[in-house]
């Protein structure tokens, strides 16, 4: 006989279900995870899941929407706008690198979830990625092009510059926090400082 679910407020129960679902989706992917498994891990019945989310797809969408409202993202947007208004190239690129590393360090489950989504070709997650990431990327590319026109940055393709800046952070953070490489001798701050020095030496005239 199933245990009686612990009584929680509707808000707390919803957050608990989201947290359990993130954990399972990050390990097994969307297709490999059932609502029955989520219910069992949360200590509830499937009926309680469907009381909060009509379908597994709705549960998945709620996870993605919650991520869009993450305070880290809001703080990054505000910080990035300030750097761009001040034409602070080094500050902007450092903030971008530091935020990518921080996201993978503090929420590796969500990063694994999105990797599963890409491998599965999950339409909802890919759409979320495009809606969330592409507008930011366009703003950064436009800023890089502006700074190139002003003579502050060498004239490489602006998109290639962005991929170079973001790519080094993505690779490092994936190695350390997703693949859990234990033999990286430097701290995150030391790595970020080194990346920034290398990048700015190559970009600045």
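-> sequence recovered:
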């Amino acid at each position: 006989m199933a245990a009686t679910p612990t009584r929680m407020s509707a808000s707390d129960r919803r957050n608990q279900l989201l947290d359990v679902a993130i954990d399972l989706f990050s390990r097994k992917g969307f297709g490999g995870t059932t609502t029955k498994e989520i219910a069992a891990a949360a200590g509830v019945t499937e009926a309680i899941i469907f009381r909060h989310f009509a379908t597994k797809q709705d549960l998945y969408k709620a996870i993605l929407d919650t991520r869009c409202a993450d305070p880290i993202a809001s703080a990054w947007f505000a910080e990035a706008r300030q750097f761009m208004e001040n034409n602070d190239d080094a500050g902007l690129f450092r903030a971008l690198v530091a935020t990518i590393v921080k996201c993978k360090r503090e929420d590796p489950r969500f990063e694994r979830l999105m990797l599963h989504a890409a491998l599965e070709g999950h339409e909802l997650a890919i759409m979320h990625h495009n809606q969330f990431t592409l507008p930011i990327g366009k703003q950064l590319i436009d800023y890089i092009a502006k700074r190139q026109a002003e003579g502050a940055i060498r004239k490489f393709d602006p998109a290639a510059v962005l991929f170079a800046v973001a790519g080094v952070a993505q690779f490092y953070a994936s190695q350390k926090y997703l693949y859990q490489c234990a033999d990286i001798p430097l701290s995150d701050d030391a790595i970020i400082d080194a990346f920034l020095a290398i990048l700015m030496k190559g970009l600045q005239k």
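Residues 9 and 116 are 31 Å apart (CA to CA).
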